[in-house]
């Protein structure tokens, strides 16, 4: 079965570091990009960062550059999102989603087909 | 930084038709923005519905369709069902980044 298994809920204090994970199964980890998406309580979706696991190329959303780090470990088919110093405003559900670019008759298509169930991160003193 | 705008809320009658739209602050939405649409029910992760304008997944109900219209991306729902009540988000690629719209809360009533 193809799935993205996310790590469990976290409760941390401001200033602490944290790493959450997204382990893929049922397909080749390096064949699809992985993005992280934030959803703050009662709010919409925000793109956080993207990694191409085949070469570790990364891109970050403007609001997240310098605040988080996305990475991947090909040996265990797992993507990560980490913080060096959490803030209360990081409280949210974080989803991982796989996506890819395919070309049909020379026409490119980007698709985002599979989502993890989310990791709730709560930051409070 | 691109801002993507959706209707905050819409209401459709059961069996009715509604179109949700997705606009970009940088200009007309095109195929090159690869518009994707997602449905999110309360307490659940998002679910993919449409990719790159008008392409459906194997699980996408036939009553949903995507298009470009009037410089925006659109998600059309025909014959609305009670289970279609949810939040809907569009996603565009712009300036090397992915940007979500603010979402549309669709009520079936």
User: What's the N-to-C terminus distance of chain A?
Assistant: 39 Å
Low-confidence stretches of chain B: none
Q: Count the helices of chain B. How many?
A: 0
Q: What is the percentage of strand-forming residues of chain A?
A: over 45%
Plain-language structure description:
The complex is a heterodimer of chains A (125) and B (109). With 125 residues, chain A is mostly beta strands. Helix content of chain A is 0%, strand content 58%. In chain A, the strands form 2 sheets. In chain A, strands 2, 4, 5, 6, 9, 10 and 11 form a 7-stranded mixed β-sheet that branches. Chain A has a 4-stranded antiparallel β-sheet with strand order 1-3-8-7, with no helix packed on it. In chain A, β5 and β6 form a beta hairpin. Helix content of chain B is 0%, strand content 51%. In chain B, a hairpin with a 2-residue loop joins β7 and β8. Chain B starts with a strand and ends with a strand. Chains A and B meet through β5 and β10 of A and β4, β5, β9 and β10 of B.
Structural descriptors:
heterodimer, A: 7-stranded mixed sheet, 4-stranded antiparallel sheet, 11 strands, B: 7-stranded mixed sheet, 0% helix
Question: What's the topology here?
Answer:
The complex is a heterodimer of chains A (125) and B (109).
Chain A: E1 3-6, E2 10-12, E3 18-25, E4 33-39, E5 45-52, E6 57-60, E7 69-73, E8 78-83, E9 92-104, E10 107-115, E11 119-123
Parallel strand pairs in A: 2-11
Antiparallel strand pairs in A: 1-3, 3-8, 4-5, 4-9, 5-6, 7-8, 9-10, 9-11
Chain B: E1 4-6, E2 9-12, E3 18-24, E4 36-40, E5 47-51, E6 55-56, E7 64-69, E8 72-77, E9 86-94, E10 97-100, E11 104-108
Parallel strand pairs in B: 2-11
Antiparallel strand pairs in B: 1-3, 3-8, 4-5, 4-9, 5-6, 7-8, 9-10, 9-11
